[in-house]
Amino acid sequence: MTRPPAYAGTERAVTATEVPRDLRRGAPRSGADSSTQVLDALRAVSRELRVSGRAAEQRSGVHPAQLHALQQLAERPSRSLAELAERTHTDPSSVSVVVQRLVERGLVVRTAASDDRRRTELSVTAAGRALARRAPESTARRLDHALTALGERDTAALARALAALARTLRSQEPTEARR
Asked: Which of 120, 94, 97 has its CA nearest to residue 109?
């Protein structure tokens, strides 16, 4: 299945050969140094999320980001794009593109808010509700369930470690690359 233009080229696929066989089952490589274990674990998580996202996309016909937004709106309409962005942990400009695609497919409708005509409320259509019901769990929800299973302490430690890694990577990045 081809990627929608807004998502084309935004991720490099990790091939199965790049993920050691034992990691495909979640086991760390024995004897590997910490850096190798982190890289292996990141590749394994990336692969699981990518495979899950592709499977959900094939079954539902919508991109994983669209499915997540649709499922959120099926649970509860949104009073604004900003609210939906917050609920989906997505940048507002990205959620705007996602919602536009759902509107174009007739799965979501935008309605001017009765109390402030400048604000747009979002809700699913009957077709959107039906798709959300029959679609598999979104990748974001799958990740959320996995983090819940880890427990609060491990999830908090993972969040701190990944945030520190991201900060370090950003500080090493050439200024031109951030534009």
From this structure: 120
For residue 93, what are its two tokens? 């400009």
- 130 — pLDDT class (breaks 50, 70, 90): very high
Distance between CA 12 and CA 28 in Å, rounded?
Answer: 23
E-state strands within the chain: 108-112, 120-124
Domains of the chain as residue ranges with CATH: 16-166 (1.10.10.10)
pLDDT of 73 > 80? The answer is yes
pLDDT at 117 (0 to 100):
81
Longest pairwise C-alpha distance within the chain: 62
- Report DSSP state, residue 18: G
